[in-house]
Specification:
Structural class: alpha+beta
Strand order of the largest sheet: 3-22-21-20-4-5-13
Radius of gyration: 23 Å
Number of helices: 13
Number of strands: 22
Distance between the termini: 31 Å
Largest sheet: 7 strands, mixed
Strand content: 15-25%
Length: 487
């Protein structure tokens, strides 16, 4: 302890979660002794000591190149994702419930994707409006009638979950295209071991280090049949992509080549080959981190310089597997999200374990009118955007911003959904040398191949701006290590 610190300015002196559910101080149904031990250990620290360790972590993050890119800031390509050293804890029973609810949701989404690209029964029976799917930008007619291995479309899913003031977990959205952030889950744990070993000592936590091997196994599971040792690669758009650090990290964790479109070629046999110094080598499974539109200039955007000409041809010929499958974007559309509870009941015959946030479709007259009448009270988001872009949080917006947004809404109502402002749970966070409550969300990652597995840890994103509900890294958010208790 620094000589200038006294017990009355220890870490939690004056900490106030401001009425929000606190991930550390609120009691749980299965309150664990580990939580009490963690609180004791944290209480024995001082803001000065924690700040010193936080500064060391920031230097190490920079030296390790653990960064992301903010596209709107052209002069600052690489930025460190701010990391808070006070972990977020999930108890064993909470995780068991979350795990079951997430697996249920991902299973239903995979059934849904198979259906809309085959018999379309859910559309014919009117459970989901056909136009919402068939006219959706994420729907790919090229996938109609195609059978992906194991009927799996979403091999990697990131499910965004929040906790309301009562402590109830609610799904905010599904990320079924190219979800990012899992590298921070693993690196955050490594950073905690280096910077805060005294907090981790003798605590029984679920490990997160096996994700890379699990991901590789998933990609091998769905490779074309009859291949004894499938060649897996990770396809990246390149160094200027916001998640390039993650692409490098995951390729290393899996022990597979990291490639760009120029490194792959499709030959006359409709097979994909990787260029190597020893010549061309066959590729069987591709974890692609490029959006559909840029994946194959022959099939989609002819001006794309990122993809592989003929890749769609090879995919449909069954000589290579793509993860995630082409056409999954329709499943993480924010308007389609509204119908996931109905998908669960329709395909699985089960009641949803995890609730959705109440959502209004602005493409419907009643939804648009409700949103216009209550704009100052709602969160309004474009259906196809991610990263917190293009949205408005009514209570935090100025009258001028609301007026401008009304015009956007009325000009293109089908592009928006609205939701009530949910009071996200909070977590103690180091801010300018003192501990304050900041809002957090949770993104668990699920792998689906021969089996479905949820990484027993998650990306806990934290809104570092006081009062902000926007946790996205592109909007100034940071992250915390997520501890899932094993016992």
């Amino acid at each position: 302890m620094s000589g200038t610190d006294t017990p009355d300015i220890r870490l939690f002196a004056g900490y106030d979660p401001n009425g929000f559910f606190c991930e550390l101080t609120n009691r749980r149904d299965d309150q664990d002794a580990s939580i009490e031990l963690l609180k004791q250990r944290l209480s024995g620290m001082t803001p000065t000591l924690l700040q010193e360790r936080s500064d060391s972590a920031e230097v190490e993050l920079y030296n390790l190149g653990i960064t992301f890119t903010v596209y709107t800031e052209r002069t600052a390509i690489d930025r460190i994702l701010p990391f808070d050293l006070i972990p977020r804890i999930i108890t064993k029973s909470e995780w068991k419930f979350l795990e079951a609810g997430i697996i249920q949701r991902v299973r239903a989404l995979n059934h849904f994707l198979w259906d809309i690209y085959h018999d379309q029964n859910i559309l014919k029976e009117g459970i989901i409006p056909a136009a919402l799917i068939l006219e959706n930008p994420g729907y790919r007619p090229e996938m109609v009638g195609f059978d992906p291995p194991g009927r799996v479309y979403i091999h990697v899913c990131g499910t965004d979950i929040i906790r309301d003031p009562s402590g109830r977990f609610i799904v905010l959205e599904d990320n079924a295209r190219t979800p990012s952030g899992v590298s921070y889950v693993i690196e955050n744990r490594h950073m905690m071991r280096r910077c805060m070993p005294d907090l981790l000592a003798n605590l029984d936590l679920r490990p997160v280090d096996e994700y890379g091997s699990r991901l590789r196994q998933t990609l091998c599971d769905v490779a074309p049949e009859g291949i004894e040792n499938p060649q897996v690669v990770l396809l990246s758009p390149g160094t200027y992509n916001s998640a390039y650090f993650e692409h490098v990290f995951l390729a290393r964790e899996m022990g597979v080549p990291l490639v760009e479109g120029r490194d792959l070629v499709v030959r006359e046999d409709n097979c994909v080959y990787m260029k190597t110094i020893a010549g061309l080598k066959r590729v069987h499974s591709i974890y692609r981190r490029i959006d559909d539109a840029f994946l194959d200039p022959e099939a989609f955007n002819p001006e794309s310089m990122l993809g592989v000409p003929g890749l769609m041809r090879a995919y449909k010929a069954g000589t290579v597997t793509l993860a995630n499958a082409i056409g999954t974007g329709v499943a993480d559309d924010k308007a389609v999200y509204i119908y996931v509870p109905q998908m669960i009941e329709y395909y699985l015959g089960e009641k949803p374990l995890l609730d959705n946030v109440q959502t209004h479709l602005c493409g419907k007259p009643e939804g648009l009118q409700y949103t216009l009448d209550n704009l100052e009270k709602l969160v309004v988001k474009p259906v196809g955007e991610s990263g917190g872009y293009g949205m408005i949080i009514g209570p935090h917006a100025t009258p001028e911003e609301c007026a401008e947004f009304r015009e956007k809404l009325q000009a293109d109502p089908a592009n928006y959904i609205s939701q009530p402002v949910i009071s996200l749970s909070a977590s103690p966070t180091l801010c300018d040398g003192k501990i304050e409550a900041r809002h957090v969300d949770l993104r668990p990652f699920t792998l689906s191949g021969a089996q479905t597995w949820v990484l027993p840890g998650a990306l806990s994103r934290v809104a570092l701006r006081k009062g902000s509900l926007v946790v996205n890294s592109s909007q100034g958010g940071g992250s915390k290590d997520t501890w899932v208790l094993a016992s």
